[in-house]
Design brief:
- The complex is a heterodimer of chains A (504) and B (162).
- Chain A is mostly helical and 504 residues long.
- In chain A, 74% of the residues lie in helices and 1% in strands.
- Chain A has one domain.
- Chain A contains 21 helices and two strands.
- In chain A, strands 1-2 form a two-stranded antiparallel ribbon.
- The longest helix of chain A is centred in the first third of the chain and has 35 residues.
- Chain A is globular.
- The two termini of chain B are 48 Å apart.
- Chain B folds into two domains: 69 residues; 74 residues, no CATH class.
- The chains are: A mainly alpha (504), B mainly alpha (162).
- At the A-B interface, helix 3, helix 8, helix 9, helix 16 and helix 17 of A face helix 1, helix 2, helix 3, helix 4 and helix 5 of B.
Chain lengths: 504, 162
Amino acid sequence: MEWGEIILKAFFIILSPKLIFLIIIGVGAGIVVGALPGLSATMATALLTSLTFGWDINPAIVLIISVWVGAVYGGNKSSILINIPGTPAALAAAFDGYPMFKLGEASFGMGVATIGSFIGGIFGAIVLAFGAPLVAKIALRFGPPEYFLLVIWGLTAIGSVSGKSLAKGFLTACLGLAVSTVGMDIMYGTGRFTFGYVQLQGGIHFVPVLIGAFGLAEALLQIEKNETIKLEKMIGTDTIRDYFLAFFKQFSLTMRCSFIGAIIGAIPGIGAEVASIVTYDHAKHTVKNPSRPFGEGAYEGVLAPQTANNAALGGALIPLLTLGIPGDAVTAVILGVLYIHGIRPGPLVFSEGKSFFAIIVLVVLLAHFALLWLGLMGNKVFASIIKIPISVLMPIVIALSVVGSFSIQNRVFDVYMMLLFGIVGYFLKKGDYPIGPLVLGIILGNMADGELRRTLALYEGEVLKAFLTRPITILLIIMIATTILSQTNFTKKIIGTISSKFKK
Amino acid sequence: MTFSTSSEKLKEYVILIAFLIFGILLLIASSYQPSFGESNQSPGVFPAVVAIIIIFTSSFMLIKYLVIDFRAKRTKKGPSPSTEIEIEQKDQKGKLLVPLIIIILYALLIGHINFFVVTFLFLAALMFYLKAGKIKTIFIISLVVVISFKIVFELIFKVILP
């Protein structure tokens, strides 16, 4: 059967009222899950695995992918409205999204995020359809040195994007890396920095840290300020036309971020979190005249990471479907669903299961159309949350933070961790230290630790041989060096001098 | 770079010294990790590298701030604390103490008292302190939030609550 015939057949299958209904319901539920801190896409898809156990493969996979699409997008709602990223992938959206909320542009920020997510998602689906075998081949060539450098690149990017000082970003990233080393050692199974506490054996989960450092710390700052903000003026009078105008103005940026997001998403173990951070950094360095300085409410700072988020989603399906390697926790759940229904992902998907592959691509496409519709319709509804006074909203945010941190592992200990990192985050924020690197350090710390030691073991401790004899590692080192150098005062001065000469 | 207030300067120094102490303690703790024959594969390698970066970066920043401070004093352009800002900040510190105690008590009571009861009490207490409205309004809001938590988290999403 030819591809044209296969796509047509897949279209007829997917356009059944039942599957369309499941896509809309799935995306809607996913947005709610993503917007509520503590409820993750992984948790929702894992719950759905048991719910859809007895279903046919098509409705099961349609519902799970739709919830995933909605949840990845929905995380920006709480990032923008209460400065708590609903999902780790929405971390970068808070950098400019929350300042936009403070400036009365919450619905505009969410509108731009919706357009970005839609475009990114469509791009990701196209990349999935056409670039799957090629990208999978590149990802397959990644070894421990490449993975280690990729993590370092992600950390240097976030260190340089989420604050005025690169050194402060480094310090908080290192704090996160140090926290990630607590618990059972991944290679030898010995306890590290547990000090005899059983609860620390499993390590410190990044979700309570994320909720504490972002949610509780922000709530404490708001309570301390006790500002009387004119909340009714904060929704704005923007329309759908404004969101599209903003997108057309940054068309090139959106396309670049879609591309970067899809590529990073296709690298197993990296995912949407890194894609959003890297593209935020990219936007910061390439957008010459942002609507406002980055970090102070520039809509470009919301558009870029949100575009990459959903583009990464299509990319993450590439190694899953072509190699059977899940890119992140959600794709691992999807892999489980595929196995339950007797589908073995791998090269055979492209020969024997072509129509199934076409169905997945179409689900990703249609789910993003549902996202666009639901996202734009529900923007004002979500923005109405800000009508609630701070004296009422902040206690609710704190209670939500407690629920969110407990529900990850059902441990009160995680609530204490959330509280501890909330207080740490409060002091760091008071000192103008960025919080993003702290959380990313914890997320990527184990990977950096493991890959570094695996590299040292593979190359018998010869660091230069490990990192300077492989073309991809050299490319990554250049990218890391460029990221760091671009943030130093010396480089900034040189760039400033050159650009002023050019202007003259 | 200059410090606009003396409290800002103090804040910077305190945080950097805290980072420096943390880095030193992390380095010491890393050295106690077993080596498993090959030292470069020890569980202490990665935390030690992180600790060295923390020590180096915080020391560098401390020295940088000390130099800036020293230069500012010499040129008599040092910190010019604004009395208004200082007073405002003192007021703010006081405002956070009671909410922080309420939050810590809430966290400590979770697991010992029914979650919905303790959440209701927490919401009511904090809203009352923040002057969210009349006692009756606070009572109704707290009740609605707790019931919403029960419906959304426990009944719909099947989330296990404390």
